[in-house]
Request: fold
Amino acid sequence: MPELRRDPIVGRWVIIATERGKRPSDFKMRVPAKKAGFCAFCNGNEYTTPPEIIANRPEGSEPNTPGWTLRVVPNKFPALRIERQLNTTGDELFSKMDGIGAHEVIIENPDHYLTLSTMPLRSVEDTLLAFHQRISDLKKDSRLKYALVFKNEGEAAGASLEHSHSQLIALPIVPKQVQEELNNSRHYHEANKSCIFCDIIRHEINDRTRVISENESYISLAPFAPTSPFETWILPKDHESSFVPDGKLPLLAQLLQKTLKQIDKVLDLPPYNMILHISPFEDESNEYYHWHMEIKPTLTKKAGFEWGSGFYINPTPPEEAAKFMRESGI
Amino acid sequence: MPELRRDPIVGRWVIIATERGKRPSDFKMRVPAKKAGFCAFCNGNEYTTPPEIIANRPEGSEPNTPGWTLRVVPNKFPALRIERQLNTTGDELFSKMDGIGAHEVIIENPDHYLTLSTMPLRSVEDTLLAFHQRISDLKKDSRLKYALVFKNEGEAAGASLEHSHSQLIALPIVPKQVQEELNNSRHYHEANKSCIFCDIIRHEINDRTRVISENESYISLAPFAPTSPFETWILPKDHESSFVPDGKLPLLAQLLQKTLKQIDKVLDLPPYNMILHISPFEDESNEYYHWHMEIKPTLTKKAGFEWGSGFYINPTPPEEAAKFMRESGI
Reply:
């Protein structure tokens, strides 16, 4: 019997279509092997990107020259632009504003053939630190309200370049998806005097069927009502509203890379999206919202039913997905 | 300069990325030519589908035999099932219910090689009438609250069979996406004493830049803040909250097929999704919600940014899309 499940955070329903019950081998989406050829993100080709914003490079090395281990550069084809006043126009029906914002690319490692799951753990740590540094810097721009960090791995997941990279888009509006999570978490906190994510973590640690892995500070789990098969969340076990991993960075990097290795092993190198959800700049430190990462392998298509309803059909129960991940041997 | 636009109905923002400004020829997504070979939806293969629910067939002809012009059958692999009590369990964090519902397939025409844009207009009319008949019938089941009719054309848009068909999923819950449209339309009506869709239609007819086509009873237009390039809506010009096209069916079929022909011509046979949004069963006749069809060519991918933010990046301003459609010569 299929099951309807309600996401506790945003109230969205998903259909867990048990009768379509898909095992990992039923999904045939594999990121093609990375190809040789000119790549703007490779060592030696720094001149082809806009000038770097920050980089990890040997002391004394000039910006935009080879030898770096991580670079952050503006997106050459930005969805939004930083240089303008923020003008709002329109009326109740048709409001619009200038597309102010930042769109940056985090090139995680100079090696063209590595992915976040195969690169040295140190690069994963550096990448997470770069997220934090860029968020902290962009926060100073009073026109901006939110920074969304995300990663698309594989063309099917929306990546236009195959060299492993993450992106950051800073926005003059708190995005709707985040605002819904914030609103509902705030209501939950008002009613229950606790953080909904903390309560979920407590429940999951006790129940264990959806827990995938954990270390001293972080936990990875399959959410109760995932929109995609094998969707995985990584959260700090203690309440933290904004992304400041501090001294715990190595533990976060370790769990993130372990999760991606599990996904690669179980699903045979699928395309995926990764998203970092944090509190908005203006309300960074609060008791109701808990930052987290969401990793969604791209295994199903958003089709007419999903577009029209906001419902999702997920053919793999999260309890089964978590079991496959736990038993992957990684 | 990119532009941020707010959808007047649900308040979702989209980025109209003018600098990526894509013309129709920049999108290279074409539905592959339909292949010969066994097809469960073809004339003569009626025995391979579950028994038909309704069909248009010559008088005296037996159900589930050849000779029909349209068939409605249960989906062989339904996302939801009709035969059960509706049980709800769980608590505030983890609520779930049995996957009660109906999942039906409307086989629009027996010819394997036709699409909704190339089949005889009469088949389009019959298809729309079948939507109405099935909705009216399912409405009698008190466990069900909503019926979503949709169509996926092309594998990239989620179609698993290439023979042209639409689907209907009836649900025990009003889906979130529809509920948001309903809530916001109701608020707008409370504040303005008018239907937001009627006001938009009035504005668009006056402005004309986003109007694509119209006839006596229906209008097609590019919405102000579309999530996808070339997204097109079809609406009745007069206020109608539920889908009862009555004597106007030929006019609706004509505008729907014209729109699909325009899309096929301008974008060279793209995959697409079509969605019918109506009022919920329990509130069929109201002054605030206006039924409509949304057609979304599958030209962009939902990637990390869209998943994480609920924002969409649309590289084609709707005013340009509408102009291409108007000037398609169809």
Q: What stands out?
A: Residues 221 and 232 of chain B are 6 Å apart (CA to CA).
